[in-house]
Write a structure and sequence with these properties.
Length: 60
């Protein structure tokens, strides 16, 4: 759990600063919501890939 937290912090902070700087003329809350949503989807996808690689594909 600590490893996931460290990886998230190392990647999310610079990416968030870059993406929030790129949001010009729009609502800051809207940009923050989209960034947060993309991070949730990204980490869900990464967790699924790690799960698939460690357990192997499920057979029907």
């Amino acid at each position: 759990m600590a490893l996931w937290t460290a990886v998230f912090a190392l990647v999310a902070i610079p990416t968030g600063m870059f993406l929030l700087r790129a949001v010009e003329g729009g609502f800051l809350a809207e940009g923050f919501f989209l960034i947060s949503l993309s991070w949730v989807i990204l980490f869900f996808f990464v967790a699924k890939v790690v799960n698939w690689l460690t357990r192997g594909p499920e057979e029907p």
